[in-house]
Amino acid sequence: MAGKIFSSWQSVKRILLIVGVVIAILFAITFTLKNGQIVKLEYYFGWSWESSLAMLVFLVFLIGGLIGYLGGLLTPLFRRRDSDSTFR
What we know:
By secondary structure, the chain is mostly helical. The protein has one domain. The chain contains 2 helices and 2 strands. It has helices spanning about 1-35, 55-85; strands at about 40, 50. The radius of gyration is 21 Å and the shape is flat. The relative contact order is 0.06. The mean pLDDT is about 85.
């Protein structure tokens, strides 16, 4: 009985993941179509970059995701080091 419940939850999670990904892709496509205008991003020292608004938003989310992923990779290292020091 428990095996059937567990496998059904796995299939529900998989279906929800697929539906979520499809919704995110549709949202990204419609956002790109509605926000195709060119924006200029100016940095320090006179550096600037021109691109579409959709590309700029995508890059911001991508960079944020990469920073979060790298932070998640480093967390177990710090946790292991802290736990080792408490037992000494």
